[in-house]
Write a structure and sequence with these properties.
Layout lengths: L1 H9 L27 H27 L1 H8 L5 H13 L5 H15 L1 H19 L5 H4 L2 H32 L4 H29 L2 H8 L1 H5 L1 H13 L5 H8 L7 H7 L1 H12 L2 H20 L5 H29 L1 H23 L4 H27 L7 H18 L1 H12 L4 H19 L11
Helix pairs in contact: 2-6, 2-8, 2-9, 2-12, 2-16, 3-4, 4-21, 5-6, 5-8, 5-20, 6-8, 6-12, 8-9, 8-20, 9-17, 9-19, 15-20, 16-17, 16-19, 16-20, 16-22, 17-18, 17-19, 18-19, 18-22
């Protein structure tokens, strides 16, 4: 609640012309505003943030209890194999995300962002909540992991549609000169969502016995997604449609085939490829630092489960404020400088900070993790607004979504699986550090090649 109040209190207030009624062209929906007054704009932005918060919480919960899920959903005769299979189930939906981006992105560019965002938050909340009622492997055999993967595929579809629609919705509501600031609130919302999941998992792990956690405790974080989904749906229903989309529709600029048009333009295809490469550090950093790290610290570094979750929680708390600062700063100094500086900073400090994680000291592990989290926040707080600014309104959600989700699937969703397998094959616990540094190098050089968009209007 405090996090939501913080966001609501700090949302930008705009002074616009009075609302006027319009009818959208080539669309099944109508809107009553082109440029909304301040209160309406604030409500719409807040609706976007709440949806992002809920969907990222739903997705992050899986990583936080991965060790327990390995016991619950897979045969218990080989614990290492169970952990690996759990991360396989984590990775598979990320290869389903580009389909979600293509379908939901096309809907967003044809019918408006708001309606699609309502569908996505519903799908994500229901699929996550249903995980919490699945039977265990001991009770149902192969049905348990199959059902888990099926629900994860629904999550993958919803998560694939969210970045293009959600962040475009926020950027288009923000107005000139504060897009970085507004979209950074969504990035901070993801940190708070992951922090909530981390603290919840840490609390359950601390107060419940291992038997209770394996029996019923692991279900609670998933079941929480259901009431959160209802809240998100109600708030998103109160939001207004994006003014950029509304104006494009009024002027007859909404295309009936956004996907085809996106791939027909050489400039758009090049921007989509940049959406694959530019977020490399963003993708690897998110999944290594916040999803894989608790399991790695427990299984490979021999910290307790609570210690691993607490280190992650501290990283998230620091990162929440860091991404807000990064977004605001990028409105003044530009996106390009922020992205390149953050990526190359990780190249410099990645190995030393990772060495701190391997020393067996909670204090040193926390210091190394926080420093890496700060580098990650410099990229994360700026990435989504940068990608939204690469595309015109008529194909923004579909082109942005496909490019971003392809990169996320390859370099992010598969990261825990790849790193776990490489550690098992090589016996080296330094694999995550190499992965982070190499992806940071590629992302840093990609950032140097983009055009600065912070000081320009959104493309139409």
């Amino acid at each position: 609640m405090r996090g939501s109040q913080f966001f609501r209190a700090n949302l930008p207030v705009t002074t616009e012309s009075p609302p006027r009624k319009v009818v959208l062209v080539n669309s099944d929906i109508s809107a009553t505003v082109v440029r909304a007054p301040a209160r309406s704009t604030r409500t719409s932005i807040f609706g976007g943030l709440v949806g992002v918060f809920i969907e990222l919480y739903d997705n992050a919960v899986y990583g936080f209890v991965a060790g327990t899920l390995a016991v619950v959903f897979f045969p218990g005769d080989a614990p290492e194999t169970g952990v690996l299979l759990t991360f396989v189930a984590f990775a598979i939906p990320f290869f389903f995300r580009p389909l979600g981006a293509a379908v939901a992105g096309s809907w967003g560019d044809r019918f408006g962002r708001k309606r699609v965002l309502l569908v996505l938050v519903t799908l994500m909340s229901l699929s996550t909540g249903l995980v919490g009622v699945l039977p265990s492997y001991a009770a149902s055999g192969a049905f348990a992991p199959i059902a888990l993967v099926a629900l994860r595929l629904v999550q993958g579809f919803a998560m694939g549609g969210e970045p293009g629609n959600g962040n475009s919705f926020l950027a288009e509501h923000a107005g000139e000169g504060r897009r970085g600031r507004v979209v950074s609130y969504a990035n901070a919302a993801t940190f708070i969502a992951m922090l909530l999941g981390t603290l919840f998992a840490a609390l359950l792990t601390a107060v419940l016995s291992t038997e209770a956690m394996h029996s019923w405790g692991w279900r609670l974080p998933f079941l929480l997604a259901l009431p959160l989904g209802v809240i998100g749906l109600l708030i998103r229903r109160a939001a207004d449609e994006s003014p950029e989309f509304t104006e494009a529709a009024v002027e007859g600029e909404v295309t009936r085939s956004p996907l085809r048009e996106a791939f027909a333009s050489g400039a758009t295809v090049r921007a989509m490829l940049m959406c694959v490469v530019l977020p490399l550090f963003n993708s690897s950093g998110y999944f290594i630092l916040f999803i894989y790290m608790p399991s790695f610290m427990k299984n490979d570094m021999h910290f307790t489960a609570v210690e691993g979750l607490l280190v992650t929680g501290i990283m998230l708390a620091v990162g929440t404020f860091a991404v807000l600062y990064a977004g605001r700063l990028s409105d003044r100094v530009g996106r390009k400088r922020m992205l390149a500086t953050s990526a190359f900073a990780m190249v410099v400090i990645g190995f030393p900070c990772y060495w701190l994680l391997t020393q067996g000291s909670f204090a040193l592990a926390t210091l190394g993790a926080v420093l890496m989290s700060l580098c990650f926040a410099g990229t994360n707080g700026v990435m989504q607004v940068t990608l939204a600014e690469l595309f015109p309104t008529r194909v923004r959600t579909v082109a942005y979504g496909i490019g971003y989700n392809l990169g996320t699937a390859i370099f992010g969703g598969a990261a825990p699986l790849l790193v776990t397998a490489l550690i098992a094959a090589t016996g080296s616990t330094w694999v995550p550090a190499f992965y982070l540094v190499l992806t940071s190098v590629a992302a840093g050089f990609a950032a140097l090649r983009i055009r600065e968009t912070a000081f320009e209007p959104l493309k139409r």
